[in-house]
Amino acid sequence: MIDILDRRRDDIIKANKKDLELFDKSDRAMYDRLIVDDKKVDGMIKSVQEVMQQEDPVGKVKSEKNLDNGLKIQNKTAPFGTIMIIYESRPDVTIEAAVLAFKANNKILLKGGKEAIHSNIILEECWHQALEENNLDSDWIKLLHLNREETQAFLKKPTEKLDLIVPRGGERLIAFVKEHAQCAVLISGRGNNFLYVAKDANWEQSIKVILNAKTDKISACNALDKILVDTRIPEYENKIKELASILKDQGVSLVVDETIGQVLTTEAKIVEESLWYQEFLEMKCLIGAVASIEEAIAKINQYSGGHSATIMTQDQELAMEFMDQVDSAAVYHNASTRFTDGGQMGVGAELAISTDKLHHRGPLGLEQLVTNKYYVFGDGQIRV
């Protein structure tokens, strides 16, 4: 597969250009995710290399017991079977998701968005070529050519056994899958990530982290959307004005709550509460004020997507209180939310970032694409 991707990179980029030409460029975040260039193909190749070098996750003994009745019981990792992933825009998912599933002995059904159809078709061709060259069935990795209605019908009554569905996308996609799926669903939900600047935060460090988290890649699910500033921070008003000025200089539009609006009088105010729940995926940020860490934690747990949250503080105990109590898949102390990523966290290539709590939370890497089963060895034992 590595050789094929490298050999066919021009064909892959050419196919992607067809998708880009047909796409509405006004949706910048989705457009950014859709682009495949030489660097992106290199990233696909690297993903395959990384997974290839990882240890096989199947058949690992998780626990072992020898009972008084002579039974030997092992709990071992096992493949799920068939995984379906539903995703939008990103053709590199067609590589990363498939190589992870395949390495863990799972079949995978790829349901990409119509906006990436030309890119995904050629990437499926590459997979099938690699499988066939190794005398393997092409059904191990299959791209589904289904519209919305056909997808709904497939979820309600699959034409083959499905063991796990991973929807990667917005609230509507997740609700759609949960409504119609007949098997387990592992949610890769919205970002809507928060950063709390505590009263003792290193202000220069906070600005640096905020800028990275907000502006480094707006199309990523780990980008920053909401900033909460403690009103007890020294020179509160001056710092709020400085933060606003720096963000606006970087092209970030602002929305502010009532308290911040008393300082930033010309900025747009929050009109509807729903804005607190929204993942922006654009150069836009909401700044709110809180009077305590308890208020910050409560706000984050109420409105965030359960993805990533950061506290900026020099107080280790305060940081641990925040990290223990915030209900997110990844919690940070003095660091950017942009690190919530399989590669950055040492997991390697990822299928998705799970915001679910069963069976795993956070980056879904190779080790997370297995379930388990019990092996019980006996010698004629019967239960009495």
Automatic annotation (TrEMBL):
NCBIfam families: PRK00197.1, proA
Subcellular location: Cytoplasm
Species this chain originates from: Arenibacter nanhaiticus
Top-rank EC class of the record's enzyme: oxidoreductase
One of the record's GO cellular component terms: cytoplasm
Function: Catalyzes the NADPH-dependent reduction of L-glutamate 5-phosphate into L-glutamate 5-semialdehyde and phosphate. The product spontaneously undergoes cyclization to form 1-pyrroline-5-carboxylate.
Top-level taxon in the UniProt lineage: Bacteria
SUPFAM superfamilies: ALDH-like (SSF53720)
GO molecular function, a single term: NADP binding
Chief location category: cytoplasm
Family from the record: Belongs to the gamma-glutamyl phosphate reductase family.
GO BP terms, alphabetized: L-proline biosynthetic process
EC number assigned by the record: 1.2.1.41
Reaction equations catalysed: L-glutamate 5-semialdehyde + phosphate + NADP(+) = L-glutamyl 5-phosphate + NADPH + H(+)
Pathway: Amino-acid biosynthesis; L-proline biosynthesis; L-glutamate 5-semialdehyde from L-glutamate: step 2/2
Aldehyde dehydrogenase domain residues: 288-341
Record CDD domains: ALDH_F18-19_ProA-GPR
Keyword RNA-binding found: no
Name this protein carries in UniProt: Gamma-glutamyl phosphate reductase
Keyword terms: Amino-acid biosynthesis, Cytoplasm, NADP, Oxidoreductase, Proline biosynthesis
UniProt-listed InterPro entries: Ald_DH/histidinol_DH, Ald_DH_C, Ald_DH_N, Aldehyde_DH_dom, Glu-5-SA_DH, GPR_dom
